[in-house]
Amino acid sequence: MSSVQPPVVQLVQAGFAYEDGPPVFDGIDFAVPEGRAMALLGRNGSGKTTLMRLLSGGLQCRSGALRLAGEEVAYDRRGLTRLRTTVQLVLQDPDDQLFAASVGQDVSFGPLNLGLPEDEVRLRVREALEALDITALEDRPTHLLSYGQRKRAAIAGAVAMRPRVLILDEPTAGLDPHGQERLLEVLGRLRDTGTTVVMATHDVDLALRWADDAAVLSPTGLRTGPIEELLADDALLAAARLRRPWGMAVTRLLREQGLLPEDVPGPRTAEELDAWAETAQGTHRPTG
Ligand SMILES: Nc1ncnc2c1ncn2[C@@H]1O[C@H](COP(=O)(O)OP(=O)(O)OP(=O)(O)O)[C@@H](O)[C@H]1O
């Protein structure tokens, strides 16, 4: 008897086209690897948002199926409620998501809608605000928040649903470097406490630094796997029109120059490059 659990959420041979449009997907298979951080990559128009909406039930497969823990999702009220308590999508623009008068009211909307008791709703709101470091903003009107604060409030609304899978459409877009780092820390903490986090991004450097796995959409299809492996695949990068991550480009250059032995991992950030340069000084000399 096999003890292998089916994926928490999975598209099986899924097909989708917008009305009067060509197919965006025609028989795509995609299983979200549980407990991991995954970056969803692909050029403009490759289908990232469509894929995320299919996974979260905002769009319905025209063929094939969406499965939750191996069971096909029915697009009726019960099926969609089950889906929304498992998978939450955070849209790119927080203004498409926030509509209540205050942050606290907005974050409580999903749990209240599930019909949870008041105590439970309060607990979830508190937890979600804490997770996003915005407890102090609970009573603030949403329209008076900064863009970065609105992004956090929108994510808190999804977190309050305690999803097993949190999917975010370009969550770091429009944030300053400090805001990006803080958000990545928050998402890392969520992953570490058991939430599967999938993030669509155009930033390959950020993806390499943050994610365990990648899903890359290109005209040749969807490839998933460890991010280090996929982003080192030049043919895949060319097909998906993605740039080689900075850290990988530097590593390749250092190895070509004989400055970095094959068994020493390459730097992924400017800080790691500085640290490497400090320790490498005098130990590695260019060959030739
Ligand atoms: N509401 C819509 N109606 C018709 N076609 C759409 C709609 N939304 C997206 N498309 C088309 O579906 C395809 C996939 O678009 P999608 O938004 O999923 O790509 P994306 O990878 O998220 O793009 P981006 O990186 O620009 O956000 C594109 O060809 C796009 O023009």
Structure description:
The chain is 38% helix and 20% strand. Helix 3 (103-113) packs across helix 4 and helix 4 packs across helix 5 (147-159). The protein has two domains: 35-49 and 74-252, Rossmann fold, CATH 3.40.50.300; 253-288, no CATH class. The protein is an alpha/beta fold. The mean pLDDT is 92. It is built from eleven helices and ten strands. It has helices at 48-56, 77-84, 103-113, 118-131, 147-159, 177-192, 204-210, 227-230, 234-239, 246-256, 270-280, and strands at 9-17, 23-31, 37-41, 63-68, 71-72, 87-90, 165-169, 196-200, 213-218, 221-226. The strands form two sheets. The chain has a six-stranded mixed sheet, sandwiched between helices. Strands 2-1-4-5 form a four-stranded antiparallel sheet, with helices on one face. The longest helix is centred in the middle third of the chain and has 16 residues, at 177-192. The radius of gyration is 21 Å and the shape is globular. Adenosine-5'-triphosphate binds next to helix 1.
Quick tags:
288 residues, alpha/beta, Rossmann fold, 2 domains, six-stranded mixed β-sheet, four-stranded antiparallel β-sheet, 10 strands, 38% helix, globular, binds adenosine-5'-triphosphate
